[in-house]
Amino acid sequence: MDMQALLQQAQQMQQQLMEAQQQLDEAQVEGTSGGGLVTVKVNGRGSVEDITIDPKAIDPDDASETAQTIADLVLAAIRDAESAVEELQQEKMGPLAEGLGGGGLPGGGMPGLPGF
Fold first, then answer.
1. Closest residue by Cα to residue 95 from 12, 25, 29, 27
2. Helices marked H in the chain
3. What is the pLDDT of residues 6-33, one digit of tens each?
4. Using the 8-state DSSP alphabet, how is residue 116 labeled?
5. How far apart are CA 17 and CA 10, in angstroms?
């Protein structure tokens, strides 16, 4: 493979990687639990941006139990959102990883990029 073709391929892959990262930055996914009592919104990189708790989740007669239930529901919703983020990241970044690690470049990867 000539050096010019290799450089063009590397530049194209770098552009695709940057575009995929931009799409992840702009993406927003939701995780829910308790049949929708708790909703968590995260960006495509996995950072929590918003948590919504339905007032129906609160039992005013049992504050201690309600607090624990809400904590459990929030944790479950975050885990649900994390799963959705992993799927989104695989969708956006997976093809690039295959191209980089699957023989797209001599040596089977791109140095300095974890997982590639």
1. 12
2. 3-26, 63-99
3. 888 888 888 888 888 888 888 899 999 9
4. -
5. 10
Nearest in space to 116 (alpha carbons), one of 103, 102, 100: 100
Contact (CB, 8 A) for 74 and 81 = no
90-104 residues labelled b (16+ CB within 10 A) or e (exposed): eebbeebbebbbeeb
Which pLDDT tens digit goes with each residue over 44-102? 888 899 999 999 999 889 988 999 999 999 999 999 999 998 888 888 777 776 665 55
For 105, residues 6+ apart whose C-beta sits below 8 A from its C-beta are: 6, 9, 10, 13
Q: Which amino acid is at 47?
A: S
According to DSSP, residue 104 is labeled I
0.70 exceeded by pTM: no
- CA distance linking residue 80 with residue 94, whole number of Å: 20
